[in-house]
Amino acid sequence: MKNYYVYLLASAKRGTLYCGVTSDLPARVWQHREKLVAGFSEKYGVSLLVWYEVHEDVHAALAREKQIKKWNRVWKIELIEKENSEWRDSYPEVC
User: Fold this and answer.
1) What is the pTM of this model?
2) Is the separation of the CB atoms in 56 and 19 below 8 Å?
3) CATH 3.40.1440.10 fits 4-94, yes or no
4) Which of 1, 49, 54, 90 has its CA 20 to 30 A from that of 84?
5) CB 82, CB 62: distance < 8 Å
6) Where are the domains of the chain?
7) How far is the C-alpha of 55 from the C-alpha of 7, rounded, in Å?
8) For the CA atoms of the chain, what is the radius of gyration?
């Protein structure tokens, strides 16, 4: 069974945020970290994996990503800090 991941990257604690979805979280975060993804994440240096959740259904993952992207910044910060109050980088854990 394939999993899909909705994730939030940050440039620093309470810094710039980026929301995305992928089926290969370690590879996708690595692409962001290495600045191989042109656009927002490259421009703003968002490379810290500060939050993610797993979905078994791609449609549910895409819907959740769209939902979070519509949220205001305060809600996104609350979501992160509920599980990761120190804003530690979870990338080493997912590799």
Assistant:
1) 0.96
2) no
3) yes
4) 1
5) no
6) 4-94
7) 11
8) 12
